[in-house]
Write a structure and sequence with these properties.
Blueprint (H helix, E strand, L loop, with lengths): L1 H22 L7 H40 L1 E3 L2 E10 L1 H10 L3 E2 L5 H14 L5 E7 L8 E2 L26 E5 L6 E4 L5 E8 L2
Antiparallel strand pairs: 1-2, 2-8, 3-8, 4-5, 4-6, 6-7
Bound molecules: calcium ion.
The site of calcium ion (CA) has 8 residues, from loops.
Amino acid sequence: MAFTGVRVLLCLLCVVHASLQQQSPPKKKPAKKDATSSAAIDEIKQQIEDILQELSLLKEQQALQTVCLKGTKIHGKCFLAVNEKKSYHTANDDCISKGGTLSTPLNGDENDSLYDYMRKSIGQEAQVWLGINDMMSEGSWKDVTGTNIKFKNWETEITTQPDGNRSQNCAVLSGTANGKWFDENCRAEKPFICEFNIV
Ligand SMILES: [Ca+2]
């Protein structure tokens, strides 16, 4: 699809080039004709802009498809595991550079899906960063956009998470605790899972 777009774009560029060549020398042509060809060029320019927009959209869709194929797809989003240990900030930057964010489950179903995918892709007893932290204000847990989270899944049966106060401001999902969350030191290095919204 993208190649077709490029080919159409090239053809249009040829047309624009030809039109510009036809225009010269402009002095000999009547003013009315100049206005007509200028309008035609504007129209072609607009068409090229539209094609470029469509092309970038196609590229985005293609990238997203690749992510979903490599990772896993749930309702409204795809997860892609990165099995390399990184600090919270580095992991967050890595997801952003891939066009996503650190995974942030919004409800129990999403948390279960993320937990299942983590066990399959990273390990049964792994811990992965979530896109959730209380760096700005102690005890006020926010997602990567700075919005207060509504869904929480802290481990509270054996321990009373979050319990790290100011020394632990980033959240992880734990495989050993059946997908429950713990707060952790943001500088700790953990694998992570990026999420990508499907539009
Ligand atoms: Ca804290």
